[in-house]
Amino acid sequence: MFQLTMRLSAVCLLYWLQLSLLMSALRGLDFKYHGEEEMVNYLRLLNKKYPNMTKLYSIGKSVQGRELWVLAIGKHVASPVPLIPNVRYIGNIHGNEVVGRELLLHLAEHYLTMYSTNSTIQTFLDSTNIHLLPCMNPDGFHISKPNYCDGIQGRNNSNNFDLNRNFPDSNNPRPPPIQPETAAVIRWVHSTHFVLSANLHGGAMVVNYPLDVFPGDIYSTRSSPSPDDDVFVHLSLVFSRSHANMYKGNHCDDHFVNGITNGAEWYPVLGGMQDFVYKVASGYEVLIEISCCKYPRPSELPKLWIYNKDALINFMMTVHIGVKGIIYGESVQNSSGVPLKGATVSIKGRDIPFYTTSRGEYYKLLLPGNYVLMVSHPLYESYSTFVKVQSYGVTRKDILLSLKSNRSEHTSSTPRRQGAANSTISTVNTFDTANSSSPASPLFHVLTFTLVVVLLF
Ligand SMILES: [Zn+2]
């Protein structure tokens, strides 16, 4: 009798556990702040549950030895494919600005649970690898005060350095020592080419885009447009206009036209991540302030998720604009050339060189129009060609460079496989290709509204 009772109890316990797990799965991620261990366990859970769509890895450790975990999501994250772009969100770079940390966990859950039923999400994750670092400053988070909207406790890392003032910056006359968290991100962006990225903050509501410093006048608050200012304005507007109310611009006692600002025009920042990524790592990065309160009550989180969800998703979709391709170098062993690492790719009139990856890839985000693409490499003949960027879809342009010693074949540097990839991802870009020379046009609103509707259902 005793044994029977024990068996029945064990069965009941097992049943209850299974039911709890099922209810938990149905309920999804709780809207609360997840501590270090809870956050890591959740990332592990997603990785275990979706092994073919995720990759969990650490980029290094904080000063106090906490791992900096990244969850990558996408059909190709396990074995990267050329010309599938990497994009990236970083949260909690300031330890007491915690909303981004939680929203990135919800974003991961959303992507993975919606993949099989939402064709927009599916197309995006089939054509993009998204990497999420929910917390860049775990030591700062550890000592931050819950429910404190302002203040600086926990903002810096445990050596008391502001990590968003800690990146190499040629404008900085007194650069601080690079911190372990910063060094980890620097190694990361050099080992993985991120085409588009953003770091998330709290204390304001605005998208802040490069440049963060006016060269030669580093402490002034004057606009410092980058060579790709039109692109950055477009990227920023995609976020602010997809957000529930950021575009209105009047939040947290600030006013920003359309909810966006040039970085230096707001206030200058030396050693910020976004300028470093743009100038050094051939990527387009912005800084996004997503809540007036840095550490709001947990009850605020559901609303903040709803306000930011479409903006977070739509922003990353803009990676599929402009022109991309592979630069090949002529080779005596291979008549069709070999992918060329470190070739310089630039657009005429835009004085910012981008460099090809180890697979010869390049990505230039551009608004619709005609451009001159210029390619150079110390060992090869330089080459220029016209590129037409369409109003939707990304243009594919591969180029073969001739060896300098073989001038007779210079004219063989003709674009190859042009347009071959357009059909692959044009369906994604159907939604995010508003003509950004007039981003507030009715077409833009219609497309944005269409995307919101698609995502909601
Ligand atoms: Zn911040």
Automatic annotation (TrEMBL):
Gene Ontology biological-process annotations: peptide metabolic process; protein processing
SUPFAM superfamilies, per the entry: Carboxypeptidase regulatory domain-like (SSF49464), Zn-dependent exopeptidases (SSF53187)
InterPro entries tied to this protein: CarboxyPept-like_regulatory, CARBOXYPEPT_ZN_1, Peptidase_M14, Peptidase_M14_domain
Entry GO CC: extracellular space
Residue ranges annotated for the Peptidase M14 domain, each copy included: 32-319
A GO molecular-function annotation: metallocarboxypeptidase activity
Pfam families per record: Peptidase_M14
Isomerase in keyword set: no
Keyword terms of this UniProt record: Carboxypeptidase, Glycoprotein, Hydrolase, Metal-binding, Protease, Signal, Zinc
Active site residues of this protein: E289
Named cofactor requirement(s): Zn(2+)
Domain of life, per lineage: Eukaryota
Annotated signal peptide: 1-28
Family: Belongs to the peptidase M14 family.
Record protein name field: Carboxypeptidase D-like isoform X1
